Amino acid sequence: MRDYEDLVHEALTADVTGWDFTWLDGRASEERPPWGYTRQLAQRLAHASSALDLDTGGGEIIAAVPTLPPRMTVTEGWEPNATRARALLQPRGVQVVHTGTDHLPFPDATFDLVTSRHPVAPAWNQIARVLRTDGTYFAQHVGPASALELIEHFLGPLAPPFARDPEQETVDAQQAGLHVVHRSTARCRMEFHDIGAIVWILRKCVWWVPDFSTERYEPQLRALDARMRAGEPVVAHSTRTLFEARRTERPVAQP
Q1: 53: pLDDT confidence band, cut at 50, 70 and 90?
Q2: Mean pLDDT score, 157-171
Q3: What is the pTM of this model?
Q4: What is the C-alpha separation between 17 and 7, in angstroms, rounded?
Q5: Domains of the chain, start order
Q6: Which end of the chain has fewer CB atoms surrounding its CB within 10 Å, N or C?
Q7: Which percentage of the chain shows pLDDT scores above 70?
Q8: What are the Methyltransferase type domain coordinates in residue numbering (predicted)?
Q9: β-sheet with 28-30: strand ranges across
Q10: What is the pLDDT of residues 117-138, one digit of tens each?
Q11: Is residue 181 a contact partner of residue 244, using CB atoms and an 8 Å limit?
């Protein structure tokens, strides 16, 4: 294994835009949920007439879908990701909108399918508003306490309740006028094998350790580096929730 400084420097200079995680190949791994979100997404998009993908990142998930609906729109709140999404998706006729999810700039009842893989914070009222009657929201959410073991190594013990609770999200969806017809949860093993992988993921997932820098957390990083050099991977667990919800009647228009 290369020395600590070399691995950290490489991770600090690597690109972290978009939602492409191939930089971690051979350095880290994550078990996938059993339901096959990307496969199910492709099946649903192939039969939709008008679809919206929220928090699309760099557009990688939608770009991999073979058949898109006649009207396909995506949103992304971070401009570097939106730029990447335009390059990937506009050649296929996809509209890329640089916006957050607090207010979606689309008329009521525009889409028969709204999707998202790992939305930042689902704006349920907005999702319900832009869905047509009998339209579907289909998404894979990050669950509560995801990567908690790694996060607590840097921040210390964190007390519940944790954000992204699927029970609370179900309540919020129902209050917005959506009927949750299916929900599944999964806990998936993550392994990191060199310190560069950990630095890179903390740069990419900035909400895990919000004040992260390699200088601030050098003792914690070196402790993990020593563990991995001794042949022990750093193990954490991601949590995921699969949601399917339907718009059963028109919601009251939101301000």
Answers
A1: very high
A2: 93
A3: 0.91
A4: 19
A5: 4-247 (3.40.50.150)
A6: C
A7: 98
A8: 52-138
A9: 28-30, 178-192, 234-247, 131-142, 111-117, 50-53, 71-76, 95-98
A10: 999 899 999 999 999 999 999 9
A11: yes
